[in-house]
Write a structure and sequence with these properties.
Layout: H1 5-18, E1 26-30, H2 35-47, E2 55-62, H3 69-82, E3 87-91, H4 102-115, E4 122-125, H5 130-142, H6 147-150, E5 156-159, E6 162-165, H7 173-182, H8 199-214, H9 218-247, E7 254-256, H10 257-260, H11 265-278, H12 286-297, E8 306-309, E9 312-317, E10 320-324, E11 336-337, E12 344-346, E13 350-358, E14 362-363, E15 372-375, E16 382-383, E17 392-393, H13 394-400, H14 405-408, E18 413-416, E19 419-423, E20 427-428, E21 439-447
Parallel strand pairs: 1-2, 1-4, 2-3, 4-6
Antiparallel strand pairs: 5-6, 7-10, 8-9, 9-10, 11-15, 12-13, 13-21, 14-21, 15-18, 16-17, 18-19, 19-20
Helix pairs in contact: 1-2, 1-7, 2-7, 5-8, 5-9, 9-11
Length: 449
Amino acid sequence: MPITTSHSKVVQSVLSCLKQAVAVKRYWLAYSGGIDSHVLLHVLANHKHHFDGVKFTAVHINHALNPRADQWAEQCRKASEELHVPYIDIDVDATPVSGESPEAKAREVRYQAILRLIRKDDCLLTAHHQDDQVETLLLQLMRGSGPKGLAAMPQWTDFGAGHLARPFLQVRREDLHAYAIANRLKWIDDDSNLDTKFDRNFIRHEIVPKLSQRWPSLAQTISRSARYCAEAVEILEESAEHHLQIINPDRLPYLPVEKLVQLSKPQQHNVLRYWINQNQMHTPSSTQLEQIVEQMLSASPDSSPKVSWEGCEIRRYRDQVYILPNLHPVNFEQVISWNVDDVINVEGTGELRAIPSCGVGVARRYITPDNVSIHFRQGGETIQPAGRTQHHALKKLFQEQGVPPWLRERTPLIYVHDQLAAVGEMLISQQFCAAEGEDGYIFQWERAF
């Protein structure tokens, strides 16, 4: 077969991209069986000799949304076998709930399934190309995205414990099609890709062709704009990192209000957005971000405002702004018996375990397998902390130690013989303290939030 310009461009884009990799030992190809991923599979199969000691595996996600989904999975398996590339398929439930985007749901479950495969020296390969980049940027523009969204898709990025690479990002769809025809490839045509009720398909079939007629270099121009936005994002993130080093050098799970208010509003937005992303939380919308600034930074010290969205909450206590995962409801009326030899998991609060000790903690002589129980605050509890001579209201002790309200109500109270012996891992009752040289238990609470 004669080597065409398109053929050479497609092959070189893959080889040059993969040669940028550092210490990748396994590539996982996201393989739908469509023309783009099938071309990538074909290129890898014919050029994997360039990568000695590196494993390649095709992974197909069966969304079960099309009546032919199982047939497609079998077609992908056969194609991989013919090209001598190991293959696995994974079944997922991509059924969207009411009000959820089918595209977003399918993408989320697909990436979550693959994410579980990725190890430290692994890299996921996807077949996104330059035309996909155009569609992504236009989609993000319609959603009102900022520079990070308009930066669209990078060629290399972190993905779970490993990496994600897009070798075709500088290649046009027409070049991939020319390669497929020249190599007589057979691929899967998913008729849902023609359904313009989906946003991406509408942009692909209705918008991009008209724009391309007016501006023939549309793909290259928009890709260039995406690169400029990516550079701007780098500068913004460097600025945010600089401010965070000053505001929160110890990387604590909260930020001081007094230092945040010294920043300009755009800097506040930039720092908060970056801080939220650094904590592996979903980025808030512009409205939610504005709520965080307005409610958290201007609140009175005795108020406890909260802004929440998918998977995340921002709260203020005293002069600190905290970031938390969404707190699950807890039955605060429950009383849970606990054999301290076992680790106990209390839903919504976390794991509690008793660690054998000597001369510290609750004396072992007070504890039997059936006399320890876990309670939660009902109000009015008192305790005489170790080293003190008087009982104090638990509410006052929490205030002394600056414990936020949402943590107080979820702190497990450990009772022995129906008497308060310990407060989480914070306080031990003087009455139950182990004497010097005496066996005891200290309590370790691994919070779920």
